Amino acid sequence: MFSPISSGYFAGATLTLRVVLRTLAAMYRLVGADQKEYGPVTPEQVREWIKEGRANATTIARLEEGPWKPLSTFPEFAPDLAQSPVPSPPPPFGASPLASSYTQRNHPLAVTGLVLSCLALVPCCCCGPLLSTVAVVLCAIALSQIGQEPDKWTGKNLAIIGIVLALLSFVAFALFWLLDGNIAFKKGPFRFR
Fold first, then answer.
1. CA 93, 98, 99: angle at the middle one, nearest 5?
2. Among candidate residues 81, 43, 42, 92, the one with its CA nearest the CA of residue 59
3. Considering the entire predicted model, what is its pTM?
4. Which listed site, 28, 88, 113, 169, has its alpha carbon 20 to 30 Å from 14?
5. Domain assignment present for 90
6. Do 120 and 178 lie in a common domain?
7. Which domain holds residue 153?
8. pLDDT of 71-83, one tens digit each?
């Protein structure tokens, strides 16, 4: 006796129906751009995410407990991925999105040297030569580093001004003591008895 089910006539349809039912009941897990795992979600939800741009061909996903692989390797999403815009390639490793907006800044040693050379000019400061020496060294180091990395540092003018002021402080201090500049301590308001 002929039976349509046992003859294989419906066997292919039964197998296709099983695949369709399994696909409909399938749950996916996806890794988002923030490296967090999302899911389990239905295929319809994945398709919606593709249309919204939240998922694309390079999104890593897995079916049930299967291996992690790109969403483009799942044939059930091929039509949806073909309609979605092509994602832009990720930035190279280590590249910062803020790198293009990074601005140069004054070298901290140039600023410190300038401040110290200004302090060395104060007449009541008896540490003038010491501060001037430190200022010259810091400004010279800053000039060297600014020359090596001009795209990173500015402040060349600050360092030059710091060196000039430090040298002026040396000269002023020498003149103060050579020309009996300690008169202020003998007859002036800072005198000692």
1. 65
2. 81
3. 0.43
4. 28
5. no
6. yes
7. 104-186
8. 889 888 888 888 7
